[in-house]
């Protein structure tokens, strides 16, 4: 009905064009027309779609393993349905509380510190007048981003070696990596060391869009350096900050598996066992496939919940959202 | 309403400045004392940041060339001391390193090539407004960034596909990174003028032809950036080797590094078994410094060439998020 109306309303203008391009009216005709016109578009997207379907959506379909008893003969989806048995097993696991607390502790520290550090760095770099020095500082601070996790953790290891390490020689007889209470600070500080510079790019990009006449006008009114930052720079990057915060919230429980796993040892495991490492150990070390899948699903669902929550809040507060 | 108040404010203030104080950008205002202090604080902090970032890296480099006794004693601080190439010699005689290196080069080159071939056309097609299904396709792609099947379902899938202990597990499953696809799509949306499309159509170019002959040559910045992201991702990949590979001769460099650097098997690396305690530790350390340098070298080599594209590329991604 409404379609007819709009078609009738725009007839005088559009009639000519439709005749020219020959848009059919039946459904199959429309589909055929669409593909005859856009088959090249489809051909370009199709490989990517196939890869995503196979390697992202097929495993998603396999999530039902969390609700089934794994049976090697019947494969991913053939086992007996057991409901929430494996989730209950996880909640009753003696390590459950510890793992959850560890995961939250590490990720919240990293989230908060890793959120503010690049903003501060970008505001500072933006204060540099000379283009050359600015470029130099950026080049240097981006560099660690490209180091692999294995190398980073090895560097931590060597530097913290007691007696001989660059840092370890000042810190007594024990490596900090063997101290449970030092695990979280080591994690987020090294995280900032590695990624702070790189993550500041996005803010520097936003800051470069500031109209310089704003600065001049503010200076006329007697604003000092700090006031310029406070009243011009910070409001400029605020929307970017919000978006990044929302995106990061989606990873509240998604502490990077690799780094935690590589930093782990028997001495610090009370503070370093997190959901992702536990998933790995249950699944691929002790081969409890269903149990491990359930833990992984629990993790994914909580992450997703936080992402949606953060997105909702930012929509309310600042009208910025990612979807 | 808001425009009214804006213009009301606007009438008074600028008139004063434009009529009575002629603005001349070349005349700098005098810096106040507080501004000087702020300046100094900013410079001190930035100098400290630069030092904190660069020194550990520099230290690894000089330590890898120095005499290990001197390194352990803390005598090596700014330049190498008592030059020794023991670490490099031992390392290069270790077959695991060579094999890992060879594997990683193969995985990285093939992987990055597939990544580009799959990602770029898809990103371009999805950037075209006339292609209506793009919204739903984009949603299906983006959804996988936040929701995934998890470790075990993926593992079982790889097993079923026969990808365990196969080199293809490094190349095929990660063919599309949705994040990179979004960045590339934003680039095509914002940086390729629509007029070009019209011109190409008038000249009778097909959609493929338009993409290959006109769009790609204009996209060197985004190709460099996305290529770099993929390249680094493959080069630094540790996760796939850990999960899917159990045969030593298929392991990529990062997993070999982990064995050498973190497993603390001092004796395996050819250090004399007669050496114990501190001496063994020192030699093991020198090998580690050398290994770190050799493993990171390729990235350090391409870094300066691609650096000019970083700001551009990341900015493009930033706009759309």
Structure description:
The complex is a heterodimer of chains A (323) and B (321). Chain A has helices at 2-9, 11-21, 27-61, 85-91, 96-126, 131-142, 149-160, 183-207, 212-220, 225-249, 257-263, 269-272, 275-285, 289-318. By secondary structure, chain A is an all-alpha fold. Chain A has a single domain, classed as MetI-like fold (Orthogonal Bundle), CATH 1.10.3720. The longest helix of chain A is centred in the first third of the chain and has 35 residues, at 27-61. Chain A is flat, with a radius of gyration of 27 Å. Chain B is built from 14 helices and no strands. In chain B, helix 5 (95-127) packs antiparallel against helix 11. Chain B folds into 2 domains: 2-84, no CATH class; 88-320, MetI-like fold. At the A-B interface, helix 3, helix 5, helix 6, helix 7 and helix 8 of A face helix 2, helix 5, helix 6, helix 7 and helix 10 of B. Chain B: The chain crosses the membrane at residues 36-58, 105-124, 136-156, 168-188, 208-232, 287-306. Chain B: Its main location: membrane. Chain B: It is found in: Cell membrane. Chain B: InterPro entries: MetI-like, MetI-like_sf. Chain B: Residues 101-310 form the ABC transmembrane type-1 domain.
